[in-house]
């Protein structure tokens, strides 16, 4: 079991541009032996970063989940060098797992673009959608859970469910919950009967936010970017459920299909606190589209991730619009 997020996405070179993960991907926010997609995504980003020179910086990573990865075996990472110029580098990365019959099954496909750092002609970024307290005035998940138990009578069973489902984040990341957010008020949808201060808003106006930083020191640029992919993926697929007083058990299927990670600054340090805000944008025909944005303490937007996810009705349930 990996002890840090850097270990979780670490790779060992088997031969040029081919790697194997040091650890099997871990589970979070899903059932059975299906792994958390952020593990696969972070591993793929790490593989892409290994293949470029240090003066190239990741600015775009577009990917597709081809199938779930399993937690009982390591992943293989194959890097294809698509483009190398004085300014840009492009990599196509395939993640696969070896099956019991010896064949490799593709799990994930990534297209990563890198650029040499350039001076800005313009410098601007959108702020968060609302004003949030500084990290020192935001509670931990333990404090949030204790408050929900004492103020709303939340049962130990559901508190323990939240701890278990999101244990991986707790192992790798320090988090502080912005109390105005939906996630902080209904425990990411687990406490679905609790009304939030955003209930009067439409689902596309609702937001959740938290402060995050790595619990363990990230050293290299590849570790920073891999960790960024890992944390930005967290919870996006079920934001629409939590914002509509539902959780994973209410859906027939809920998981990420594809994503676009945009990185706006070349220097990223997730050893320091960053503010992350999540919202959902649209949902129809069994899919949803949501976004997570990240700012540093100076208010500069560091990254954005959009995701389209599957959201299926349980069998035998009719749609309500």
UniProtKB/TrEMBL annotation:
UniProt xrefs under InterPro entries? ACOT8-like_C, Acyl-CoA_hotdog, Acyl_CoA_thio, HotDog_dom_sf, TesB_ACOT8-like_N
Location of the Acyl-CoA thioesterase-like N-terminal HotDog domain: 25-115
Query: What Pfam family is a match for this entry?
Result: 4HBT_3
* A molecular function (GO) term: fatty acyl-CoA hydrolase activity
- List, alphabetically, the GO terms of the cellular component aspect: peroxisomal matrix
Q: Which domain of life is it from?
A: Eukaryota
Could you tell me which residue ranges the Acyl-CoA thioesterase-like C-terminal domain spans? 204-310
Q: Alphabetically list the UniProt keywords.
A: Hydrolase
The protein's matches in SUPFAM superfamilies, at most eight in alphabetical order, are given as: Thioesterase/thiol ester dehydrase-isomerase
Q: What are the BP-aspect GO terms?
A: acyl-CoA metabolic process; fatty acid catabolic process
The family classification in the record reads: Belongs to the C/M/P thioester hydrolase family.
Official protein name in the record: Acyl-CoA thioesterase II
Species per Swiss-Prot/TrEMBL record: Coniosporium apollinis (strain CBS 100218)
């Amino acid at each position: 079991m990996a002890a840090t997020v850097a270990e979780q996405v670490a790779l060992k070179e088997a031969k040029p541009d081919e790697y194997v993960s040091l650890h099997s991907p871990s589970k979070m926010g899903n059932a059975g032996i299906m792994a958390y997609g952020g593990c696969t995504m972070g591993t793929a980003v790490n593989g892409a970063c290994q293949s470029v020179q240090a003066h190239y910086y990741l600015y775009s990573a577009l990917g597709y989940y081809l199938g779930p990865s399993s937690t009982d075996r390591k992943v293989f990472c194959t890097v294809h060098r698509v483009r190398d110029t004085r300014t840009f580098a492009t990599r196509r990365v395939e993640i696969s797992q070896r099956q019991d019959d010896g064949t490799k099954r593709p799990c994930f496909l990534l297209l990563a673009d890198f650029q040499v750092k350039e001076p800005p002609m313009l410098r601007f970024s959108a702020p968060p959608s609302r004003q949030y307290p500084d990290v020192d005035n935001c509670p931990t998940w333990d404090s949030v859970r204790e408050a929900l138990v004492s103020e709303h009578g939340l049962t130990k069973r559901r508190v323990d469910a939240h701890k278990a489902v999101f244990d991986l984040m707790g192992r790798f990341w320090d988090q502080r919950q912005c109390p105005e957010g939906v996630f902080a008020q209904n425990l990411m949808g687990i406490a679905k009967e609790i009304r939030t201060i955003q209930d009067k808003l439409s689902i596309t106006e609702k937001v959740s936010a938290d402060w995050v930083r790595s619990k363990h020191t990230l050293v290299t640029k590849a570790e920073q970017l891999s960790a960024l992919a890992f944390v930005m993926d967290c919870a996006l697929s079920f934001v629409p459920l939590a914002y509509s007083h539902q959780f994973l058990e209410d859906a027939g299927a809920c998981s990420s299909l594809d994503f676009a990670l945009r990185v706006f600054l070349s220097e990223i340090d997730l050893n320091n606190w960053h503010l992350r805000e999540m919202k959902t944008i649209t949902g129809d025909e069994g899919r949803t589209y949501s976004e997570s944005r990240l700012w540093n303490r100076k208010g500069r937007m560091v990254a954005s991730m959009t995701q389209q996810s599957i959201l299926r009705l349980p069998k035998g349930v009719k749609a309500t619009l």
